[in-house]
Structures are given as structure tokens and as C-alpha cells.
Amino acid sequence: MAIFPTFSFITILLLLLLLSSSPHLPQVQARVDIVRDFSRIALPGPIGPETIDFDCAGEGPYTGVSDGRVLKWLGDERGWIEFATTSRERNKEECSGTNDSELEDTCGRPLGLRFNKATGDLYIVDAYFGLLVVGHHGGLATQLATSAEGAPFHFTNGVDIDQTASKSCTCKFELTSLFCRDYIWVILSGDMTGRLMQYDPKSKQVTVLLRGLFFANGVALSKDKTFLVVAETTTRRILRYWLQGPKMGKHEVFAQLPGFPDNINRNSKGEFWVALSHGSHQLGEFMSFSNELKRKGIFESTWKFDAAQQILEDFSAVGVKLSEEGKIMEVLCVNDGTIVNSVSELKEENEKLWLGSLDLPFAGVTEL
């Protein structure tokens, strides 16, 4: 399998110019919080609790993990149990507990979860199997959509639901020759094939709302349902897409961030928690030396790229909280180097903040 496709120099140059011209560190409107005590909830073998949600009874968390399962947390005494799977081809003996990314297209890799609070149904977006849904009893999820406008899904990444209209709004990144395990090359290549889409359960139709996104990632609806926000990981920014009002159908920059945004979650106040994956402005600056990188073969050498990733390790921000207007209210930091490089999700629930990750063997939780 090709690690990355052919991209024009113009595409890469535009990306580098965009990154180098963005602010080094956006102005923070409030204090910097340092989380010193982040409790760990170990997973039973697999890794990567990428996304987190709670059901209509407040039970959970539920999370998608590396072996293709959606797990449910039942507390310290009972631990994690299997709730759902996404792949019909999944072999339990081969897949259960695996951390092998080469098996993801067989076992599944659920990256986004959102419960319909009225019905109890869980909507799942899987990197390889598109948009799915499973009832409140769990089991094998049913596929709802695997393509839009004739183009198949290849990296379905985030999901949110309009609880009042029962419409599932999915944020999806698509790149034919890349898979979930190759996501980091998307940032380096400057790919802009991301799409923001809406699925209507009644008509079973998928509508593309936005195209040409730089690594589309997390998505969240505003509290009043007038707009949604979507993360562009490569450009380190959050976009706002208007669903109602005079700007309906238009989009704009909602926030510029000090790191690479991953998933987005709205809290009960209407504020947005944005996880910062490998949270550092330094990679953007590092990438701005485009000619030097190209001359040294950075795009052809895995070990050189691994070295580039080490630049990120000293920055401790794992997320930001944004106001309804897109202002940075808080920068969330940790003093645990194990956590700092791998945060994919921050979910506020019952005065606790839950932390998800693409590759850690545990979920995290702290009191707010």
C-alpha cells in the first residue's frame, strides 16, 4: 500500500504559507489550567479510546478502540464490556485485543460516537466502514452510508447529532489512497479532500455541506443549532458553518488554535472543548522550511519524520475551551508526558472531564 499519493508542489506550498502566516500562539482570554491529577482507566488489551460518549441514562463512558469494538465502562468492579462492533468480517480470535493497525480494515476502527438521546441509538463513524448505527442493546452495527456523490468513504472521522431534528451530521475526511493509520502524512502532504456531510435518517440521503477541507476532523453543533463547528487539523483552525440565519450555507474561521485540533465536544453551557492532537505550533514552524525538508528527503524518509515528531513533545497543552463566539477561554495542560502527545478527545460530563486518545492504553478523567 502506498504511504502517500502524489501531490503537486503548489498544494504543499499553499499549505506551508498558510501555516507559517498563522499566529504562533493565539491570544488566550483566560488562565492556563494545569491538570495535575488525571486518573487513568486502563483498557482490557486494546488501545486508543479515540472518542467518548454517554447514553441517555448517563451510563458510560462508551469508547471506540483499536480492535474495532465499542466498549462500555461499568465502573471499577465490573470494568469494560463489549457493547458493539462495526465490521461484519471481524474475526473475534484475530481481532479482539489487537493493536495492529494493519488489521483495522478487517476489524474496524470506530473513531466517532454519538448517542441519540431520544431513541437510545448509538451513531458510529468508522474509519473503514462509514456511518453506522446500533440500538441501545448493542451488537453488530448497521451500515447507513458508505459514500456521497459517488465517492466512497475512506476515513470517516467524527459525528454529531441534531437531537431535535434527528439528523446525524457527520464530519468526514476522505482520501482514497490513505487509511486511518496513515493520517500523519495527510498533514505533511497538504491534502484538502475533507468533506463535511449531513445524513438524514428519514430520507437516508447524504448531503455534502463543505468540500476541500484540510484534514477534516471533529465536528459539533452549537447549542442553539444555528451553526456547527468543524476542525481542520492541518491548518490548526476551527471553521464555523452556518445552518440557519442570513449566513446560512456559508462558512468562516471560528478560531485559530495553538495546536492541531482533533475532536470537538460542546458542553451544557454551549462552550466547546477541542482536543489538541500532538499539540504544538512548532510542527507548523518546522514545516515552513519546505525547501530544506524536500532537499533532505523528509517526505520519503520514515525515520526522519519520526524525528520530526519529537519536536512536539515539550508542549503540554492537550486542549482548549472555546466560547460560543470562538474565543479561547482556557488552555488545558498536563504535566504527564505520556498523555500530552496523544489526546484526541475532551468530553465534559457531570462535572468531570474525560480524555480520549488515539494510541494510549487507557482513558483519562479528572474533576472540573
Quick summary of this structure?
The protein is mainly beta.
Write a concise keyword list for the protein shown above.
mainly beta; disordered N terminus; Protein STRICTOSIDINE SYNTHASE-LIKE 10-like protein; 368 residues; globular; Neuraminidase; 28 strands; 5-stranded mixed β-sheet
Task: Describe it.
The protein is mostly beta strands and 368 residues long. The protein has a single domain, classed as 6 Propeller (Neuraminidase). It has 8 helices and 28 strands. It is globular and about 50 Å long.
What is the topology?
Blueprint: H1 9-21, E1 32-35, E2 39-42, E3 52-53, E4 62-64, E5 69-73, E6 80-85, H2 92-95, H3 104-107, E7 110-115, E8 122-126, E9 130-134, E10 139-140, E11 142-145, E12 147-148, E13 151-152, E14 156-162, E15 167-172, H4 183-189, E16 194-200, E17 205-213, E18 216-221, E19 227-232, E20 237-242, E21 251-256, E22 260-266, E23 272-277, H5 282-287, H6 290-295, H7 302-309, E24 317-322, E25 328-334, H8 337-340, E26 343-349, E27 352-357, E28 362-367
Parallel strand pairs: 1-25, 6-10
Antiparallel strand pairs: 2-28, 3-4, 4-5, 5-6, 7-8, 8-9, 9-11, 12-13, 14-15, 15-16, 16-17, 18-19, 19-20, 20-21, 22-23, 23-24, 24-25, 26-27, 27-28
